[in-house]
Amino acid sequence: MALSLITDIPATCYTSQLQKIELASSGTVVKFRIYYQAQLYYSGNGQTLIFSSSYNTRFSRVAIYDIGSLLETYLSDKDGLQQFIFYFSNGTDSLEQTYGIIYCKQLPLRTAADLANSNYITNYFNRLVYKGAKDQLPYFAGFGSPGGYAVRTITYTVVYRKTDGTFGTYDIISGGRTGFGISYVLTSCDAIAAMFQFSIPDGAVIVAYSLKQGSCTARFYVSEQPLLRQFVFRNAYGCREYIAVPTAQTEKTETKSSTAVCGDTLTQYDITHTRSFEEQTPVLQRAEARRFMEFLTSHYTAVVIGNAEYPIVITSYKDEISDNSGEGNAIKFEWQFVSLRTPLISEDYDRIFSPEHADQFV
Q1: For 119-137, how does the pLDDT look when each residue is reduced to its tens digit (9 = 90+)?
Q2: Which of 136, 208, 211, 289 lies at a CB distance of 3.0 to 4.6 Å from 284, suitable for a disulfide?
């Protein structure tokens, strides 16, 4: 009895490519199972059965729908490039295939294999970063045997401005082991400055830097802003990224309650306070605005306060990206904390005056 795949599934593919899988089978029933293959485990084979079902054949064909959506749900809290095993059986013949599957609800122009081979699982390789803000690149080292490792070699290059106004550059080649699957490379300005603190002249200021891995180069341009909002989100491929932007924030608090009358006394009950935050960004470059749109439409977003992150929901936004000459892109959006028990945010400054008034009261 024959069993074969009609749908051509690449060895590395997006979840959006798996919405319909067709097979040819001479049997009457095809059993289908999906196993998640962990890269790190301590017993067994690291495989977890996440789906199992049987399908009746019709004219020796079977069509299986929405597998991509199923995997998107499974990958929603995992770094978005994982390994899965598809197992098909019709009682006599069987077929087993292992795939590297990337979370993505869209249809990217570049193939999943090209994205994986670039090592960096992101859409944005040119970024404006701010001093004091966090940033990182999702790094894919491939899949391998348990307990094994890959070798990662990155060339870091900084451009710095010296105290006399002239510029210089300096390179550091950093190599080392990394685990298989997704890991993260710190790319914040503070992390790079710490790496180069003994390599550039005293008093020099880093204005830009780059990370080169193979044929892929990510470039970062440094800016400084006194007031930043820092967020974390899962990008279009399900990997965690940070985004920081200077914004003007408006805090809104709304209270709802019911009132009861007891004698000549009024009493409130069922009191709820809803707090929301409205952010207005300055003018952004088009690439920045597109990356911000990826944050606004992410399935996981959180605000970073201190060293902790708090999940949020974005309730509304206005994002119109224009490529008209001389026209910038500004974004306004509103968000709330996921939990009704919101963090108690305290203002912590060296003086009584908050940053927007600091210049007037130096």
Answers
A1: 999 999 999 999 999 999 9
A2: 289
